[in-house]
Amino acid sequence: MKLFVNDEEKHIEKDALLLHDLLLENGVENPDTVVVQLNGEFVEKGSYRKTYAKENDKVDFLYFVGGGRYERFNY
């Protein structure tokens, strides 16, 4: 089947693939740290092991990264 993962076309030798397995196949070591959109809709993390990506689906992996700068002021 053909899928679009993060806007990149991928070909997979299956008719459907669990989102959890798709994450692992794309190098995501801990699927719980990623938010997934399937065809523009957010998927609950608890559903990754029961939601399938199918032919021509668009899947996006979203990562949230913290950052910034902390300064301590002594007055």
TrEMBL record:
It comes from the Bacteria. This is Sulfur carrier protein ThiS. Pfam families: ThiS. PANTHER family: SULFUR CARRIER PROTEIN THIS (PTHR34472). It comes from Flexistipes sinusarabici.
